[in-house]
Write a structure and sequence with these properties.
Elements: E1 4-8, H1 13-25, E2 30-38, H2 53-74, E3 79-86, H3 88-98, E4 103-107, H4 121-129, E5 133-137, H5 141-144, E6 152-156, H6 161-173, E7 178-185, H7 202-223, E8 229-234, H8 237-247, E9 252-256, H9 270-278, E10 283-286
Parallel strand pairs: 1-2, 1-4, 2-3, 4-5, 6-7, 6-9, 7-8, 9-10
Antiparallel strand pairs: 5-10
Helix pairs in contact: 3-4, 8-9
């Protein structure tokens, strides 16, 4: 399936890692690197330069895109480049709509002073507003290259159509990946599950466990893949997902952009948004279905 992937780039290591992730993960895609000259942020000023401000900004943007082209050549790929001016998050979203982009891959933060564990303001705005699936890469290029992508893939599921779409995307896009589905059970109390044996809370745990196991089984049946591993965890879903992925040496997380709890489909779900903020691994948020339906 041919797709068009947009990769916003700037001088940050994370944005370059986003380009590398794209070249590795989408071998047959059309790749466009977009650099936006921020109309409200002077990141290119050079003291004593004989050039005008506009010339300095233009030249800096062109250098960034030249670097993107060079990285594409390293992977024997052609990378289309586009230079735009405006507010970065707005320009990225508008470009996505106007040019029928299928997927956006970007660093978790760029030249903004905001750093992990929070998304940069541009990344967060794009995650919330882009009408297509998005991958956030929080690592530097050197860190990303230590991964054997697609590697081990964690797919959180909660029984929603979006989580099943994410699982379908993972199995279709990365057939060589080692996929584990995880259902995180949110308990109505703050006790260690192993410590409540024999108490009146045991029946509650049994009920939610049975429901969680049914969700996992339904997810495996949906993709008809007996190779997919299934795990159940207990606790706050966003924290459980991030911790489980980090503690078990996963290489990336793929999940629905929202789950059962969100009534408005236009806004990214709180669990997905928190995972994309807090994860130290690449996180892909799937909107709609892999075939493009919503």
């Amino acid at each position: 399936m041919t797709v068009h992937v947009l990769v916003p780039v700037d001088r940050s290591s994370q944005s370059i890692a986003g380009l590398v992730y794209t070249l590795v993960s989408f071998p047959d895609a059309t790749v466009t690197a977009l650099h936006v000259l921020d109309s409200q942020h002077d990141a290119y000023a050079e003291v004593g330069s004989p050039e005008s401000h506009d010339e300095t900004v233009q030249r800096a943007g062109e250098r960034i895109l030249e670097r993107a082209t060079e990285i594409g050549a390293d992977y024997e790929r052609a990378v289309e480049t586009v230079l735009e001016s405006g507010l970065p998050h707005r320009t990225i979203v508008e470009y996505t709509v106007e040019h029928d982009i299928d997927h956006v891959v970007m660093g978790s933060h760029g030249e903004s002073p905001i750093v992990r564990p929070f998304l940069g303001h541009v990344s967060e705005a794009v995650v919330r507003r882009a009408p297509v699936s998005t991958t956030i890469v929080p690592e530097s290029r050197s860190q990303l290259l230590q991964r054997d992508l697609p590697g081990r893939i964690l797919v959180p599921v909660d029984g929603s159509d979006q989580s099943l779409a994410a699982l379908e995307y993972a199995t279709d896009r990365f057939p060589s990946g080692r996929i584990t589905i995880l259902h995180a059970v949110a308990l109505p109390f703050d006790y260690d599950v192993e410590a409540i044996d024999g108490t009146y809370l045991e029946s509650i745990v049994d009920t939610v466990t049975e429901r969680g196991e049914a969700i996992l089984e339904a997810a495996r049946e949906a993709v008809e893949d007996d190779v997919v591993e299934a795990e159940l965890s207990y606790g706050d879903p966003s924290r459980s997902i991030v911790d489980y992925a980090a503690e078990n040496d996963f290489d990336q997380i793929i999940m629905g952009s929202h789950g059962r709890s969100l009534p408005a489909r236009i806004i990214t779900g709180s669990v997905a948004e928190t995972v994309s903020r807090r994860s130290t691994l690449p996180v892909t948020l799937i909107r709609g279905h892999p075939d493009g339906s919503s």
